[in-house]
């Protein structure tokens, strides 16, 4: 009989799995989370449980959300004995975090969240977490470094895009540290980076219409704002001019405040 170890749980390429195995980086991430005794920490994609173990060792209650059904039983066997671990099989880009907290920790209004997230779900998961941020106090997330460069890009940077504005509208972002490929198994070809996100209060940027505007503005990055907005908005040159924005500018040059000003003006113009 083959002993079941963490190394016998193979990573699935289809799920973008790269398991963190370097204890130094596990500790750095958990230090960034800074869990207090009996604090609730939501962990997305615990995988083999490297972060899970250290979070539990530091006294946290861990509510894990795992998509891979083959990992769930092993995670439950490994950690349920602590009395402070719950794992649910679900897609974190769709999971209702408020509902999960109400079900398992009804006296917890807000929880911290930690995750090692694959590139292919970065936009979907960040958009979902932005919608769910009312029940989160702080998020520590690891992405491929290119994703972090995008979400931290300043106005004027070629890396700035729809995802940048979405995250900037919902969170205060702090880039923490990079993680090399050799910290994972299997070893990816790229570096990863860890960021801290602090939720911002609700704002007009949460409106789906605001997100549609930003998405339209970035639809073809080489084109001017006026050209990109022509398809969905009447007389975009006039709207941009009224918002104090040169129609010849490109979307990547706009600050969040300018997007919000343009959105407010367009919303006013379309009122019945």
Structural class: alpha/beta
The CA-CA distance between the termini, in Å, is 72 Å
Please write the string of helix (H) and strand (E) elements. EHEHEHEHEHEHHEEEHHHH
Strand order of the largest sheet: 4-3-2-5-6-9-7
User: Measured on Cα atoms, how large is the radius of gyration?
Assistant: 21 Å
Number of helices: 11
Which percent band covers the strand fraction? 15-25%
Shape: elongated
Mean pLDDT, nearest integer?
91
Largest sheet: 7 strands, mixed
Oligomer: single chain
Number of strands: 9
User: Which consecutive residue ranges, at least 5 long each, have pLDDT under 50?
Assistant: 1-8
Proportion in helices: 25-40%
What does this structure look like?
The chain has 272 residues and is of the alpha/beta class. It has eleven helices and nine strands. The protein has helices at 23-33, 50-57, 72-79, 97-104, 122-132, 145-151, 162-170, 208-217, 225-229, 236-242, 256-269; strands at residues 19-20, 40-44, 61-66, 85-89, 111-116, 136-144, 171-179, 184-185, 192-199. The strands form two sheets. Strands 4-3-2-5-6-9-7 form a seven-stranded mixed sheet. Strands 1-8 form a two-stranded antiparallel ribbon. Strand 2, helix 2 and strand 3 form a beta-alpha-beta unit. Helix 1 crosses helix 2 (50-57) and helix 5 packs parallel to helix 7 (162-170). The model is unreliable at 1-8 (pLDDT under 50).
Structure, briefly:
It contains eleven helices and nine strands.
């Amino acid at each position: 009989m083959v002993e079941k170890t963490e190394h016998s749980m193979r990573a699935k390429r289809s799920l973008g799995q790269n398991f963190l195995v370097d204890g130094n980086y596990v500790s750095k991430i958990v230090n960034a989370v800074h869990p207090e005794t009996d604090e609730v920490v939501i962990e997305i994609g615990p995988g083999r449980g490297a972060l899970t173990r250290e979070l539990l060792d530091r006294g946290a209650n861990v509510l894990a959300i795992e998509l891979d059904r083959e990992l769930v039983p092993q995670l439950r066997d490994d950690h349920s004995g602590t009395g402070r671990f719950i794992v649910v099989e679900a897609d974190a880009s769709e999971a209702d975090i408020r509902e999960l907290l109400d079900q398992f920790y009804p006296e917890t209004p807000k929880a911290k969240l930690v995750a090692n997230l694959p590139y292919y779900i970065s936009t979907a998961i960040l958009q979902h977490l932005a919608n769910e941020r009312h029940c989160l106090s702080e998020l520590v997330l690891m992405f491929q470094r290119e994703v972090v460069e995008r979400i931290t890009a300043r106005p004027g940077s070629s890396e700035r895009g729809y995802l940048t504005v979405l995250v900037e509208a919902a969170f205060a972002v702090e880039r923490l540290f990079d993680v090399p490929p050799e910290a994972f198994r299997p070893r990816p070809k790229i570096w990863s980076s860890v960021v801290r996100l602090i939720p911002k209060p609700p704002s007009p940027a949460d409106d789906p219409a605001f997100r549609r505007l930003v998405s339209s503005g970035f639809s073809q990055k080489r084109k001017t704002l006026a050209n990109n907005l022509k398809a969905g908005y009447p007389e975009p040159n006039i709207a941009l001019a009224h918002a104090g924005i040169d129609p010849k500018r490109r979307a990547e040059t706009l600050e969040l405040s300018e997007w919000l000003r343009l959105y407010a003006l367009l919303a006013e113009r379309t009122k019945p």
